[in-house]
Amino acid sequence: SVWTPSGEGKAMPDILVLYYSRHGATAELARQVARGVDSVAGCRARIRTVPALGAAIAASEGAAYATHEDLAECAGLVLGSPVRFGNMAAPLRAFFDGTSSLWLTGVLAGKPAGAFASGSTMHGGQETTPLGMLLPLLHHGMLIVGLPFTEPALSETAAGGTPYGASRVVPPGARRTLAESERTLAQTLGERVAKAA
Question: Strand pairing of 166-169 and 44-49?
């Protein structure tokens, strides 16, 4: 849906939840962010992903692949990635490297945005990855939304969660369900971006 601030005939604004996930941990966090978005009256989540580098076929299951139109049409963005040596994953970075036409038009300027990440170790980049993901969003002129310490789960968590965005920790080879604090903080991030929109 295309959202316009004019108020007349506007469709429900979409908050784009855009992520890359190789093994499903980041996708699971994205679904919680989307729940937070959907909890805000008048907003809905539009979940999209990006293909692995070199993938030439369309997504056959799960979220559809993101397009520049998804970015142009959204009222806000929440961006998610697995931690890759303290940085966002290359497929997500490659997608944003191709958005200079959007930067030239300023279509993302003034829209709220947040970030989330999934990693395999507690101190393996849960804070640097969301921070790095915010850099291209700042260049696009987006308004950054984080998680304040007024959120009790941020101070109580022994799992994921940072003031720079939601996060989760899944040890290598493990299949761990989201901790309650991780779930709460992901939903809160989606809700905060939706409310800002």
Answer: unpaired
Which H or E run includes 100?
A: helix 100-105
The token duo for 73 is: 């049409």
Taking alpha carbons only, the member of 163, 140, 135, 168 closest to residue 150 is 163
3-state SS string for 32-91: HHHHHHHCCCCCEEEEEECCCCCCCCCCCCCCEECCHHHHHHCCEEEEEEECECCECCHH
For residue 1, what pLDDT is reported? 43
Is the distance from CB of 40 to CB of 193 less than 8 angstroms?
no
Residue 84: exposure state from Cβ atoms within 10 A (0-12, 13-18, ≥19): buried
134 and 144 in contact (C-beta within 8 Å)?
yes
Both structure tokens of 132: 């790095």
- Give pLDDT tens digits for 65-84: 999 999 999 999 999 999 99
Backbone angles phi, psi at 14, to 5 degrees: -95, 135
- The percentage of residues in the chain with a pLDDT greater than 90, rounded to a whole number, is 64
pLDDT digits (tens, 9 = 90+) for 165-177: 999 888 777 777 8
Helix or strand or coil: residue 168? strand
Cα(73)–Cα(10) distance, rounded to whole angstroms? 12
